[in-house]
């Protein structure tokens, strides 16, 4: 049976999860024949992908009716949502680097903090699986579409590495719909001892595209270039009693947009976003309170902390920065009297330099009817802080930001049943859910006729 991490931050089976989760494995990714993340997950229940036209246009996601800003996207545990817009273009994540996708439907701020008001998508990138394997591929299609990809991996006795590179180009099916992109990834894993390893990963994407606009209002000169560079270092230790992980990262995302034909054009818009962070999380298995021999229950205790700084240098909104910190703790309690029953309780405290603190609790119950059928129910609170564009969007007489915004908050309720057959290759589920949101951010016209959030 598939193992999932996103629901509790430690490995567990689908039948052990107290929330609605789904896994997309490597076989399903290959079968989708998709170029990016959006194409892989577009047919999954509860998810809606909005595509704005040609191959190079933006792909946005909604989970259970949420806005794209309310869906948290993680790549190897690192937040991919940009602090300026609060969302991510799924078309910028190439399918060829993805090994597995975990999808958490519903609010998840008790574990993941801001931006997880709608749900979480956790992307696990590829790593070395076999000893010395190389692949070279080339594709050609209509509209002068070309793709060239190479990868090499080697799994040694104490060091593993995986490297891949891709170049893709297409002229598109209409004027100014061309796409030209480069994607590089490298992953190195060093075994320090039988329980400890050190991993280094880097990713680089260069995504140049034309933005043709609508058929009625074309923009034949509009161009956008996205460049993203991420490097992260992870130290991990694992034994039978506990896991401990320390992750540090730096992420740079540069967006260049220019539309010379735009009315009142005054030059290109350039946005540089820098995110630096460090996180620590640990899981204690078979944890007990008091005397272990006389205890009538077992606990799985997970805790962690995170510190992250966001910096934006933008021609539209200027130079901005904020500092965010968080701590969380979660306990999964299983009684020895009734082993089929487990109760999950957790809480996270997030501190945002602009909006102060937020407490987000979650409680869930799981009951196994049989070895392959489980019932689950949960209640939790979530929130989303306004992004830099919401607060400080440039004033041009037609649209503008709103520095008086408050964070969105929501309480979510869910109950369901899940079935996984003995082989683990067939699944079914039924879930009923409700979400009550307040301070929901929406665009409207103010008293002066200006559109604001």
Structure description:
The protein contains four helices and 26 strands. The chain has 453 residues and is mostly beta strands. The protein has a 15-stranded antiparallel sheet. The longest helix has 7 residues, at 26-32. It has helices spanning 26-32, 37-41, 109-112, 388-392; strands at residues 3-4, 12-13, 21-24, 47-51, 59-63, 71-75, 78-79, 98-105, 119-125, 133-141, 145-155, 159-170, 179-191, 196-210, 223-238, 242-258, 269-287, 297-314, 318-335, 341-352, 356-370, 373-384, 408-420, 427-438, 444-445, 451-452.
Task: Name a few traits of the molecule.
mainly beta, 26 strands, 5-stranded mixed sheet, 453 residues, 15-stranded antiparallel sheet, 4 helices, 5% helix
Short description:
With 453 residues, the chain is mainly β.
Whole-number radius of gyration?
23 Å
Give me the number of helical elements: 4
Strand content: over 45%
Biggest sheet overview = 15 strands, antiparallel
Secondary structure: elements and pairs:
Layout: E1 3-4, E2 12-13, E3 21-24, H1 26-32, H2 37-41, E4 47-51, E5 59-63, E6 71-75, E7 78-79, E8 98-105, H3 109-112, E9 119-125, E10 133-141, E11 145-155, E12 159-170, E13 179-191, E14 196-210, E15 223-238, E16 242-258, E17 269-287, E18 297-314, E19 318-335, E20 341-352, E21 356-370, E22 373-384, H4 388-392, E23 408-420, E24 427-438, E25 444-445, E26 451-452
Parallel strand pairs: 6-9
Antiparallel strand pairs: 1-2, 3-8, 4-5, 6-7, 8-9, 10-11, 11-12, 12-13, 13-14, 14-15, 15-16, 16-17, 17-18, 18-19, 19-20, 20-21, 21-22, 22-23, 23-24, 25-26
């Amino acid at each position: 049976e598939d193992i999932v991490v996103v629901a509790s931050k430690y490995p567990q089976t689908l039948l052990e999860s107290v929330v609605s989760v789904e896994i997309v494995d490597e076989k399903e990714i290959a079968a989708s024949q998709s170029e990016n993340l959006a194409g892989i997950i577009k047919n999954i229940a509860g998810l809606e992908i909005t595509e704005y036209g040609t191959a190079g246009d933006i792909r946005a996601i909604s989970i259970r009716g949420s806005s794209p800003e309310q869906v948290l996207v993680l790549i190897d545990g690192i937040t991919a949502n940009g602090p300026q817009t609060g969302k991510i273009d799924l078309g910028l994540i190439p399918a060829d680097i993805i090994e597995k996708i975990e999808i958490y439907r519903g609010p998840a701020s008790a574990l993941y903090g801001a931006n997880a008001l709608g749900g979480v998508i956790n992307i696990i990138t590829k790593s070395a699986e076999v000893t010395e394997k190389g692949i070279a591929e080339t594709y050609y299609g209509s509209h002068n579409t070309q793709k060239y990809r190479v990868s090499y991996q080697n799994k040694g006795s104490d060091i593993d590495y995986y490297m891949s590179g891709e170049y893709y180009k297409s002229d598109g099916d209409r004027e100014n719909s061309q796409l030209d992109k480069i994607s590089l990834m490298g992953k190195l894993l060093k075994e320090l001892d039988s329980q400890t390893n050190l991993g280094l990963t880097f990713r680089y994407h260069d995504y140049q595209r034309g933005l043709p606009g609508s058929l009625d209002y074309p923009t034949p000169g509009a161009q956008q270039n996205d460049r993203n560079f991420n490097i992260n270092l992870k130290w991990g230790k694992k034994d039978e009693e506990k896991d401990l992980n320390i992750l540090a990262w730096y992420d740079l995302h540069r967006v260049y947009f220019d539309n010379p034909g735009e009315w009142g054009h005054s030059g290109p818009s350039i946005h540089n976003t820098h995110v630096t962070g460090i996180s620590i999380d640990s899981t204690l298995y078979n944890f007990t309170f008091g005397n272990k021999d006389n205890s009538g229950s077992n606990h799985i205790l997970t805790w962690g902390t995170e510190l992250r700084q966001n910096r934006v240098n933008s021609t539209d909104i200027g130079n901005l920065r904020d500092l965010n910190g968080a701590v969380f703790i979660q306990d999964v309690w299983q009684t020895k009297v009734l082993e089929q029953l487990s109760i999950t309780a957790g809480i996270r405290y997030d501190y945002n330099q602009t909006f102060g603190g937020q407490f987000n609790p979650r409680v869930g119950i799981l009951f196994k009817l049989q070895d392959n059928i489980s019932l689950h129910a949960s209640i939790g609170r979530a929130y989303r802080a306004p992004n830099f564009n919401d607060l400080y969007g440039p004033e041009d007489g037609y649209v503008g930001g709103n520095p008086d915004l408050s964070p969105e908050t929501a309480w979510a309720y869910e109950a369901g049943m899940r079935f996984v057959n003995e082989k683990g290759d067939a699944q079914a589920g039924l879930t009923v859910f409700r979400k009550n949101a307040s301070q929901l951010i929406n665009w409207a016209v103010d008293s002066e006729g200006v559109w604001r959030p």
